[in-house]
Amino acid sequence: MELKEYPDAEMMMMDLADLLASELRSCLARHDHASLAVPGGTTPGPIFDSLCATRLDWDRVHVMLTDERWVPESSDRSNTRLIRQRLLTDRAAAAVYVPLYLPGDAPEDRLAELEESLKPELPLSILLLGMGADMHTASIFPGADRLDEALHGDALLVPMRAPGAPEPRITLSAKVLRDAMSTHVVITGTEKREALERARHLTPDEAPIAAVLRNAIVHWAES
Ligand SMILES: O=C(O)[C@H](O)[C@@H](O)[C@H](O)[C@H](O)COP(=O)(O)O
């Protein structure tokens, strides 16, 4: 794992947007398309605000989420809604969106279709992850009902229910996350920095973020 510390979060978000753009450009120079997976939650919005205005061949970029809360897009808990509003806009409106949610009562109802549309995107070219103070990443939560399958199984996508998550989730599995060509984790604040340090000495079953740290660059700013 490599840790990059920044003087402040604003600078970190701008730098990360530039870094993701340059990785996308170099991937597009070698392949006909690039796949970019991004988290939802509260941290990455400013990265999206900057990245969406970047000049690149967005129509060859396939964008998806690392995980989704199983709520309709009209909900303000929807990560799809977040990236439609803040990433798939401006120049990036030309990107191809690969969904991680389809209307249905439960993630299990639409799992097969979602997996089919994900398959051609793998391995992911560029993966950006968030992390919770409980050391979850994507929606792979400690104590989740299908944690073992998400960490150690062959599935690409796993439905999840966890004490720390108010609604059912769907998440890329650790296998998909680990196979990404380039992995960045973005975190802010002292609590998450301490959680990261703890995770480095724990197993993925205790600290799911540990499953992806080996090849990741972690970007951190205090605030
Ligand atoms: O849907 C989600 O919640 C995310 O994709 C999740 O994995 C997120 O990255 C972490 O929970 C951190 O969330 P914050 O950035 O809100 O702290």
From TrEMBL:
Reactions performed catalytically: 6-phospho-D-glucono-1,5-lactone + H2O = 6-phospho-D-gluconate + H(+)
Keywords, alphabetical: Hydrolase
Pfam families attached to this UniProt entry: Glucosamine_iso
Pathway: Carbohydrate degradation; pentose phosphate pathway; D-ribulose 5-phosphate from D-glucose 6-phosphate (oxidative stage): step 2/3
Domain Glucosamine/galactosamine-6-phosphate isomerase: 7-216
GO BP, sorted A to Z: carbohydrate metabolic process; pentose-phosphate shunt
UniProt KW Hydrolase keyword: yes
Functional description taken from the UniProt entry: Hydrolysis of 6-phosphogluconolactone to 6-phosphogluconate.
PANTHER family: 6-PHOSPHOGLUCONOLACTONASE
Family: Belongs to the glucosamine/galactosamine-6-phosphate isomerase family. 6-phosphogluconolactonase subfamily.
Name of the protein: 6-phosphogluconolactonase
Organism, scientific name: Roseisalinus antarcticus
